[in-house]
Amino acid sequence: MHTTEELQQILDTAIQNLKFPDQPKQLYEPISYIINLGGKRVRPLLVLLGTELFGGNARESIHAAMAIEVFHNFTLVHDDIMDNAPLRRGKATVHEKWSTNTAILSGDVMMVEANKNLAKVNPVFLKDVLDTFNETAQGVCEGQQLDMEFESRNDVSIDEYINMIRLKTAVLLGGALKLGAIIANSDKKDADLLYQFGENIGIAFQLQDDILDVYADPEKFGKQVGGDIIANKKTFLLLEALTLAQGENKATLEEWLNKKNFDPQEKVAAIKQVYSNLNIQDIARNSMDAYLQKALTVFEQIQVDDSAKENLLELTNLLMAREY
Amino acid sequence: MHTTEELQQILDTAIQNLKFPDQPKQLYEPISYIINLGGKRVRPLLVLLGTELFGGNARESIHAAMAIEVFHNFTLVHDDIMDNAPLRRGKATVHEKWSTNTAILSGDVMMVEANKNLAKVNPVFLKDVLDTFNETAQGVCEGQQLDMEFESRNDVSIDEYINMIRLKTAVLLGGALKLGAIIANSDKKDADLLYQFGENIGIAFQLQDDILDVYADPEKFGKQVGGDIIANKKTFLLLEALTLAQGENKATLEEWLNKKNFDPQEKVAAIKQVYSNLNIQDIARNSMDAYLQKALTVFEQIQVDDSAKENLLELTNLLMAREY
C-alpha cells in the first residue's frame, strides 16, 4: 500500500508520460495544454485509492486513472465552450487560445484518448470497467445539460439542483472510486458502496463550493467572493433563499436578481443580508453535513480493515476542510 | 449466412430498437433525430458483412454495428457545427434546429452511446474490438482536422489530400469491416487484409464523389452538380489541375478561384473546360480505379471461399457503379 504522496508521485509521472501524436499539431497541442494546466488530480487519485482500499496495487489501475483524468479534461474543454468561459485555472481556455472548432475536435479526440487508456486495463475487468466508465460519462453529460437548462429556468427545485450537481460533479468521483475497486477485484457490493461514498462526498463537496463562494475568506479565496451572487447563479443558497423568502426578503431578492446595472459589492452585501435573515448558511451547511455523514456511514459498511481506509478518510477530511 | 437484404432488415430493426433515455429531452432528442434522418447504413452493414465473411453470424456483431452507426452520426453532428452546415440530408442540422451547445453535448453523449454499444460485444473479443474502434475514431478526428486545415492552405499536395480522405472517410469503412472480422474470430492476418480492402474502397469511393460532383447527370444527382467548383473546394480534381496547369489554363484557374462575384454556371463551365484541357477526369478515374484494383487484389488474398465473398463484392460493385 502506498502513501497518498507516493500515489500523487505515481500520477504525476503517468501524466507526464501521456503521449499524444505530433500531427496534426492543432489537434493534439490543446490536449497537452489543458492537461498541463494542472489541477489537484483528485479524480485519478480516487481511482488509485479505490484500488488500494481493496488490497490492489495502484499501478494496476493507473491506466483507468489516466482515462478519468483525460475524460475530465475533455469535459472542461467542451464545458468552457458551452459556458463561453474565457479562463480556466487563470489561463486562456482552449476555444479562446485556438478556436471553437479546435476545442470541439480536440475535445472529441480526448474522449477517444480516454477510451484508449481504458482499453489498457486488465482484460479480465474490461467489461465492468467500460460499463462503469460509460455510465459515469453519460451522467456527466446529463449534468452539464441540466446545468445549462437551469440557467433559463425560474422554477428549479432544490431536489433538481441536487440531482444536477450529482450528475455533473459527483458521479465522476463515485465512478473513479468504483473503477479502482473493480480493478482490485473487490466484492461487487463493496464496489457499489464505494461508489455511493464518492457520490455523496461529491455532492457535499459541491455544496461546500456554493457556500465558500459566498462565505470564504477573501484573502485566501482564489477567485472573487460573491461571484455566484453577482452572476445570479442558481446555487443551493439562492434556490433555498427563493424557496423560503417572503415579504421584504422576497422583494429584496427579486429586486437584485432583476437589476441590470448595479454595484457588485452592494449586490453581494444585500443578498448576503437576505441569506443571513433566512439562515441560509446554516441550512446549506446542514445539508452539506448530511451528505458527508451519509458518505461516511456508507463507507463504514465496506468490508475492509480500518487501516486500509485511512488514506481515503484523510483525503475526505482534507477536501471537506477547505476554507477557500 | 444472410443475404444483404436480410442484413439490412436486421440493421433496420436494431436501429429502431436503439433506445435512449427520455430525460433530459434536449440532450437525447437530437440523437434520435439525426439517426432517423436515414442514410444508406453502409458502415454498420460492413460490420455485419465482415462477420459473415468469416462464417460468423451477423447477430453477433450487431452491437458493434450500432456502435459504428452511432459514432458515424456523432461525427456528422460535430462536423456540421465545424463546417457551419445548415442542412444534412435535406433537413436542418442539429445545431441549426437546436443550438450549437446542444449539438456539442448531444454529440458527446452519442460518443458515449457508441461506446456503450461496443461494450456489449462478446467479452472475448472486447479488447481487440476497442483497440480497432479507438484507432478508427482517432483517425476520423485527424481527418476532420486536416480537412479544416486544408481550407486555408494553398499548398495541399495530392498525397496529403489522399491521406486526408483516407483518415476522414476510409478508415471508418476499414475499421467497420475489421470489427466484423474480429467478432467472427477471423485469422488476424485476414482481418488486416479486410481492413486494407475497406480503406482502399473508401479512398476510391471518395474520389468517385469528387468526380461525380462535377460530372454526374444533373437529372439524377441529388445535389447541385459543380457545387465543389463553385465553393473552391480542394478536391482531387482541383488539386490535380493546380499541379498540372500552366500558361492559359493556370491563368483561367486562378482567375476563377479568386473571383468574388460570379455567375455560378459560368464558373463551373470555365473550370470544367480547364479540367477537360488537362484530362483531369481521366486522371481522377485512373486514380480511383487504381485504389479499387488495390482493394480487390487485397480482397483476393483473404483465405475464405469465394462464395463467402460474394456479398461484399456485390456491395462494392454497387457502391462503385454510382452515377449520381
From TrEMBL, chains A, B:
<dbReference type="GO" id="GO:0046872">
    <property type="term" value="F:metal ion binding"/>
</dbReference>
<dbReference type="InterPro" id="IPR033749">
    <property type="entry name" value="Polyprenyl_synt_CS"/>
</dbReference>
<keyword id="KW-0460">Magnesium</keyword>
<dbReference type="Pfam" id="PF00348">
    <property type="entry name" value="polyprenyl_synt"/>
</dbReference>
<dbReference type="InterPro" id="IPR000092">
    <property type="entry name" value="Polyprenyl_synt"/>
</dbReference>
<dbReference type="GO" id="GO:0008299">
    <property type="term" value="P:isoprenoid biosynthetic process"/>
</dbReference>
<keyword id="KW-0808">Transferase</keyword>
<dbReference type="InterPro" id="IPR008949">
    <property type="entry name" value="Isoprenoid_synthase_dom_sf"/>
</dbReference>
<comment type="similarity">
    <text>Belongs to the FPP/GGPP synthase family.</text>
</comment>
<dbReference type="GO" id="GO:0004659">
    <property type="term" value="F:prenyltransferase activity"/>
</dbReference>
<keyword id="KW-0479">Metal-binding</keyword>
<protein>
    <submittedName>
        <fullName>Geranylgeranyl diphosphate synthase, type II</fullName>
    </submittedName>
</protein>
